[in-house]
Write a structure and sequence with these properties.
Blueprint (H helix, E strand, L loop, with lengths): L17 H9 L4 H24 L1 H14 L13 H6 L1
């Protein structure tokens, strides 16, 4: 996914709960910035949730292969081996 956090801004009309809007303004919140940040996070969350669903089968196959065959670097790493086995590697 292309970066969406620094994309150009576009003006829109938005209807919000009046009381919440009044309280937000009283608190000094930047409404545009707050809505933009929250909407960005929600879009990204849904994008990656959809991506994970679409790729679940491939991920499962990959994980099964790694469980069965291991990683290519398994024989070189020592931090996961018992101390006795580290000296013989």
């Amino acid at each position: 996914m292309r970066s969406i956090r620094n994309a150009p801004k576009r003006a829109i009309n938005l209807s919000l709960n009046g009381k919440v809007l009044d309280l937000a303004r009283e608190m000094g919140l930047n409404i545009s910035q707050t809505v933009d940040a929250l909407l960005t996070e929600e879009v990204l969350r849904r994008y990656w949730a959809d991506w994970q669903k679409e790729n679940a089968e491939a991920i499962a196959h990959y994980n099964e292969r790694i469980a069965r065959e291991g990683l290519f670097s398994d024989r070189y790493r020592t931090f996961m081996r018992p101390r006795a086995a580290r000296k013989t590697a």
